[in-house]
Amino acid sequence: MAQEKGNWWRMSIISNKVWPQLRQVALPDPRFHHNYCSFIPDFGGSPTATNLLTSVPAYKNAEILFVAPDNCIQELRHRALIDGKTVLVTTYGIRRGFWLLDPRVISEKKWEIASMLDGMERVGRHVSLAEIKSLLKKIDLMVTGTGAINYQGLRFGKGHGFFDLEWAMLYSIGVIDRITQTAAVIHECQVLDEGFMGEEWDTGCDFIVTNQRVIEVNGASKPSCGILWHNLQNEMLEDIEPLRELKDMQSGRP
Predict the structure, then answer these.
(1) What is the pLDDT of residues 38-80, one digit of tens each?
(2) Which of 78, 92, 155, 206 has the fewest CB atoms within 10 Å, i.e. is most exposed?
(3) Smallest Cα–Cα separation from 194: which of 20, 7, 10?
(4) This model's pTM is above 0.85
(5) 3-class SS letters over 70-120
(6) Closest residue by Cα to residue 175 from 203, 138, 146
(7) What are phi and psi of 43, to 5 degrees?
(8) How far apart are CA 90 and CA 213, in angstroms?
(9) How far is Cα 39 from Cα 36, in angstroms, rounded to an integer?
């Protein structure tokens, strides 16, 4: 019951404080229009936020990035490929798992297509968790969009928890750890003062990058609990391919 109240409180803050301002700067999605419960929108000023993130040493020094499938960081996925970095990304809702975008394999003329959700499955490589562990060894930086975020680096998301699941799966196979750096790319109107106690699975962000500034967070939460199977929504195991693979790996099934 406390968890349900906490989720309701977070969503109430987002819908009342963030969404009215976000609607003024957000770009509608062709599928979801302005339904921010269904997607993280791109926004006016996102190229500036992308440029600010690429100036941060955590990005400059990274060779392999995980970049979430959010609209506001499509340009970052493209920029990372231009910069010679390998990008790991999931499909929307993680339903078709993880895809690897390697600029050494994908021709330069297809990098922009690869950075788009509608294009990455045409030119990228689908990879299982076992292949991620074998091929990548270590992910240097994880980047996400979010509905809103506070100065503790705790995200107020759509309520689905996909970034937390992505963190937990990658943590479980050993390609990230609690010192792996994380960043959120957002519009300035999505930064909130509200403080709250995060849940044990909440993945915090070391960097909050807006269209105006970079905010560094000290002591961002980095969960080590892996997947809390009993907390998953009923349909997630059925819908999300890598979750089924991880469950088999942890149970010893081939």
Answers:
(1) 678 999 999 999 999 999 999 999 999 999 999 999 999 999 9
(2) 92
(3) 10
(4) yes
(5) CHHHHHHHHHHHHCCCEEEEECHHHCCCEEEECCCCCCHHHHHHHHCCCCH
(6) 138
(7) -150, 155
(8) 27
(9) 5
